[in-house]
Specification:
The longest helix is centred in the middle third of the chain and has 14 residues. The protein is mainly alpha-helical. The chain is globular.
Length: 76
Protein backbone atom coordinates (compact mmCIF):
# COMPACT_ATOMS: atom_id res chain seq x y z
CA UNK A 1 0.00 0.00 0.00
CA UNK A 2 1.26 3.45 -0.89
CA UNK A 3 0.63 6.34 1.46
CA UNK A 4 0.61 9.83 -0.01
CA UNK A 5 1.07 12.96 2.04
CA UNK A 6 -1.65 15.28 0.76
CA UNK A 7 -2.01 18.99 1.44
CA UNK A 8 -5.66 19.85 1.12
CA UNK A 9 -7.63 22.99 1.87
CA UNK A 10 -7.95 22.16 5.58
CA UNK A 11 -4.21 21.52 6.02
CA UNK A 12 -3.34 24.69 4.14
CA UNK A 13 -5.64 26.85 6.27
CA UNK A 14 -4.30 25.27 9.48
CA UNK A 15 -0.72 26.06 8.45
CA UNK A 16 -1.65 29.66 7.61
CA UNK A 17 -3.45 30.06 10.94
CA UNK A 18 -0.37 28.69 12.73
CA UNK A 19 1.65 31.50 11.12
CA UNK A 20 -0.81 34.08 12.43
CA UNK A 21 -2.54 34.81 9.14
CA UNK A 22 -6.07 36.24 9.57
CA UNK A 23 -7.73 33.13 8.16
CA UNK A 24 -10.54 30.95 9.47
CA UNK A 25 -11.34 27.37 8.62
CA UNK A 26 -14.77 28.46 7.37
CA UNK A 27 -13.39 30.68 4.60
CA UNK A 28 -13.29 29.52 1.00
CA UNK A 29 -9.93 29.40 -0.76
CA UNK A 30 -10.63 32.62 -2.71
CA UNK A 31 -11.48 34.33 0.60
CA UNK A 32 -8.29 32.95 2.14
CA UNK A 33 -6.26 34.26 -0.77
CA UNK A 34 -7.81 37.72 -0.49
CA UNK A 35 -7.36 37.84 3.29
CA UNK A 36 -3.72 36.79 3.18
CA UNK A 37 -2.82 39.14 0.33
CA UNK A 38 -4.47 42.03 2.18
CA UNK A 39 -2.65 41.03 5.39
CA UNK A 40 0.67 40.92 3.54
CA UNK A 41 0.07 44.44 2.22
CA UNK A 42 -0.46 45.67 5.76
CA UNK A 43 2.35 43.56 7.24
CA UNK A 44 4.95 42.98 4.51
CA UNK A 45 7.37 41.60 7.09
CA UNK A 46 5.22 38.44 7.13
CA UNK A 47 5.86 37.76 3.42
CA UNK A 48 8.99 35.62 3.94
CA UNK A 49 7.11 33.36 6.35
CA UNK A 50 4.26 32.80 3.88
CA UNK A 51 6.72 32.18 1.04
CA UNK A 52 8.72 29.74 3.19
CA UNK A 53 5.52 27.88 4.05
CA UNK A 54 4.57 27.56 0.39
CA UNK A 55 8.08 26.49 -0.63
CA UNK A 56 8.29 23.89 2.10
CA UNK A 57 4.97 22.38 1.04
CA UNK A 58 6.21 22.18 -2.54
CA UNK A 59 9.63 20.72 -1.64
CA UNK A 60 8.39 18.07 0.78
CA UNK A 61 7.30 14.75 -0.59
CA UNK A 62 3.70 15.95 -0.65
CA UNK A 63 0.91 16.26 -3.12
CA UNK A 64 -0.77 19.65 -3.13
CA UNK A 65 -4.30 19.84 -4.47
CA UNK A 66 -4.50 22.06 -7.59
CA UNK A 67 -6.89 24.57 -6.01
CA UNK A 68 -4.53 24.97 -3.04
CA UNK A 69 -1.56 25.29 -5.38
CA UNK A 70 -3.30 28.16 -7.20
CA UNK A 71 -3.64 30.10 -3.96
CA UNK A 72 -0.03 29.34 -3.02
CA UNK A 73 1.08 30.67 -6.42
CA UNK A 74 -0.67 33.98 -5.68
CA UNK A 75 1.63 34.43 -2.67
CA UNK A 76 4.83 34.03 -4.68
Amino acid sequence: MMIVDLVDEVDFKERLIALGAPVTSEQSLPEVQEAVLSWLQQYPEQTPFIKDLCLSMQKENTTVLPEVYQVMAAFS
